[in-house]
Write a structure and sequence with these properties.
The protein is α/β, with parallel strands linked by helices and 613 residues long. An eight-stranded mixed beta sheet has the order 2-17-10-13-9-3-4-5, with helices on both faces. It contains 17 helices and 31 strands. The longest helix is centred in the N-terminal third of the chain and has 19 residues, at 160-178. Helices cover 31% and strands 26% of the residues. The structure holds ligand UGB. Ligand UGB binds next to strand 4 and strand 13. InterPro entries: Nucleotide-diphossugar_trans, UDP-sugar_pyrophosphorylase, UDPGP_fam. It catalyses: a monosaccharide 1-phosphate + UTP + H(+) = a UDP-monosaccharide + diphosphate. One of its GO terms (molecular function) is UTP-monosaccharide-1-phosphate uridylyltransferase activity.
Length: 613
């Protein structure tokens, strides 16, 4: 590949003059770069003696980029050239495929089938590992901290990471109890971080004693960024502020597969007898309500890959699960990303593209990127691919001839593209659940959320929190509690349903059957109420709540809460997202909680207790 800046002689001279500064490994890397058409990187290298440390630091970065990509930079540059050529030629990545609506396992919360799947799932949890992808900065949300530190809801202030860890620990306990007497296994928990999130994630864990998890149970795997590309020849981009640095950008959540593979963890898990790996994202406070049943589906249907899905609104920023049939007969069920679904549909006979059907939803189920992968077949596949996932490139061109980019681009990959390389014999399925139960991410800033078309979910901090109260209220209703209807309220320009603020620790109940077993007699909760249950053995019996009730109890304290609880409760007060005097995590949700009056009881001794005011 010829270079266009500087003559080969210049490049060779610049580099040749400096070779003596470099270690033998660095010399090899420099030669590789020149051979791969990257001589421009040395164009402005001065004579030896000038900025020598910077030159060596440059090759250190090259070594890191080379080591962290399957196949090294040679592979990266070759793939980039191919993908950039396809992009320039306007080649559709789904060329030859016709989309259609796939059929999956649709679950209905609380029915016998659901309860059965949940029980199966909880039994399986002992043999599972959980993987959270949390390397993204969340540009759409615009929050300054890491997203896993945000509160899931402001009634208790529990952050996402704490909620996830407590949910895994609660499932670990529940699984052990169901399997009676079986040895309790510490479920492995991996968090994929990036340079943008790593230190702050570690700090959050360390300052909170890992939220009750054993530190050895948690493993952080940091993804590296990849080199940026300046043009269709895949010339690596030099950082505009530092000529000794290659510009880098995130490679996407698909990195999780190669990191798990190269870390050796998959083999360790396999040797320990684990069977499942569950992947999930950084801000979905509902997810763990869906996990037991979905894992039950995986085990029952023997799925190698099971994606969780919810009904999708047309143009919602979640991918569509699609059956793709190739002209040559091949088929696959795969996520088509939200920005690709509309063009694919239009190109294949759906004249209106990504629109709702008569049901009011897109016919394509929405991918919520919760994947359950069976470990054995996963290792087999990764042994072949080393975890490399099919990549894509999305350059923003300056000109119609597509010869130059507005800004540098890079290759990206998505974790849900894992099934793309699987053989047709692989058992790939998906499970659809109600959105109210399974999906309420926090992705959009208040301004953008307020612009979401009416009827589509906001995916904001406001809607994410309100979804927790709604899901808990609906679950209790299903279990027989009389829960008042919600009130409509507007926060940060978003109209949402405000249900009673009901929250519980994961240990209180991980399945519908457990919720049901903890609710007896005739219970009622008014709309203005708040109820917080922090304890495993708290039972509601003939409780009438109109106000705020907070109960905390150790595992060995069995508490029956009944009678009539009435007080002023906790009020919700509007806050404007532009009010800089309010902490960021409060103002992005548009309200704060004013704790007027409550009944608060703590049980820290073992025994049986009755709360009956
Ligand atoms: N993430 C990383 O860990 N590393 C990265 O380099 C990038 C992200 P976004 P996105 O379910 O809501 C996905 O940005 O990519 C983590 C699916 O592709 O929140 O727009 C990041 O920290 C889409 O099909 O989402 O869309 C976060 O935890 C749909 O399912 C996660 O990856 C959508 O999520 C997702 O990153 C959804």
């Amino acid at each position: 590949m010829a270079t266009t800046v500087g003559s080969t002689a210049d490049i060779n001279r610049n580099l040749r003059n400096n070779l003596s500064l470099l270690s033998p490994d660095q010399v090899e890397l420099a030669k590789m770069l020149v051979e791969m058409g990257q001589g421009h990187l040395f164009d402005n290298w001065p004579e030896p003696g000038v900025e020598d440390d910077d030159k060596r630091a440059f090759l250190d970065q090259v070594a890191r980029l080379n080591a962290s990509y399957p196949g090294g930079l040679v592979s990266y540059i070759k793939s980039a050239r191919e993908l950039l050529a396809d992009s320039k030629a306007g080649k559709n990545p789904f060329d030859g495929f016709t989309p259609s609506v796939p059929s999956g396992e649709a679950l209905s919360y609380g029915d016998d089938n659901f309860i059965q799947f949940e029980e199966t799932g909880v039994r399986q949890v002992q043999d599972a590992a959980f993987v959270l992808v949390a390397g993204g900065l969340g540009e759409r949300l615009g929050y300054n901290g890491i997203k896993v530190a945000l509160p899931v809801e402001s009634t208790t202030g529990t952050c996402f990471l704490q909620h996830y860890i407590e949910s895994i620990l609660a499932l670990q306990d529940a699984s052990c109890r169901l399997e009676q007497g079986a040895r309790q296994r510490a479920i492995p928990f991996v968090i994929m971080t990036s340079d943008d999130t790593h230190l702050r994630t570690l700090q959050l864990l360390e300052t909170n004693a890992y939220f009750g998890m054993q530190p050895t149970q948690v493993k952080l795997l940091k993804q590296e960024k990849v080199a940026c590309l300046d043009d269709n020849d895949a010339r690596l981009a030099v950082d505009p502020h530092n000529k000794y640095k290659i510009q880098t950008k995130p490679h996407g959540h698909g990195d999780v597969h190669s990191l798990l593979y190269s870390s050796g963890l998959l083999k360790t898990w396999h040797d320990a007898g684990l069977r499942w790996v569950l992947f999930f994202q950084d801000t979905n406070g509902l997810l763990f309500k869906a996990i037991p049943a979905a894992l039950g589906v995986s085990a029952t249907k023997k799925y190698h890959v099971n994606s969780l899905a919810v009904p999708r609104k047309a143009k919602e920023a979640i991918g569509g699960i699609t059956k793709l049939t190739h002209a040559d007969g091949r088929t696959m069920v795969i996520n088509v990303e939200y920005n690709q679904l509309d063009p694919l549909l239009r190109a294949t006979g759906y004249a209106d593209g990504d629109v709702n059907s008569e049901t009011g939803y897109s016919p394509f189920p929405g991918n919520i990127n919760q994947l359950i992968i069976e470990l054995g077949p996963y290792i087999e596949e990764l042994t072949k691919t080393r975890g490399a996932i099919k990549e894509f490139v999305n350059p923003k061109y300056k000109d119609s001839a597509k010869t130059s980019f507005k800004s540098s681009t890079r290759l990206e990959c998505m974790m849900q593209d894992y099934p793309k390389t699987l053989p047709p014999t692989a058992r790939v399925g998906f499970t659809v659940m109600d959105s109210w139960l399974a999906y309420a991410p926090v992705k959009n800033n208040p301004e953008d959320a307020a612009k979401v078309p009416k009827g589509n979910p906001y995916h904001s901090a406001t809607s994410g929190e309100m979804a927790i109260y709604r899901a808990n209220s609906l679950s209790l209703r299903k279990a027989g509690v009389q829960v008042d209807d919600p009130a409509e309220q507007v926060f940060n320009g978003q109209e949402v349903e405000v249900w009673p603020r009901i929250t519980w620790k994961a240990k209180w109940a991980t399945t519908f059957a457990e919720i049901k077993s903890k609710v007896n007699g005739s219970c009622s909760i008014s709309q203005k109420s708040t109820m917080v249950l922090k304890g495993r053995n708290i039972f509601l019996e003939d409780l009438s709540l109109d106000g705020a009730l907070i109960i905390e109890a150790i595992d060995d304290a069995e508490v029956k809460a009944g009678g009539s609880v009435q007080n002023k409760g906790w009020a919700i007060e509007n806050v404007d997202y532009r009010d800089a005097s309010v902490p960021e995590e409060v103002r992005i949700r548009g309200f704060r909680i004013n704790k007027l009056e409550q009944l608060e009881k703590t049980y820290s001794e073992p025994g049986k207790f009755s709360l009956n005011p």
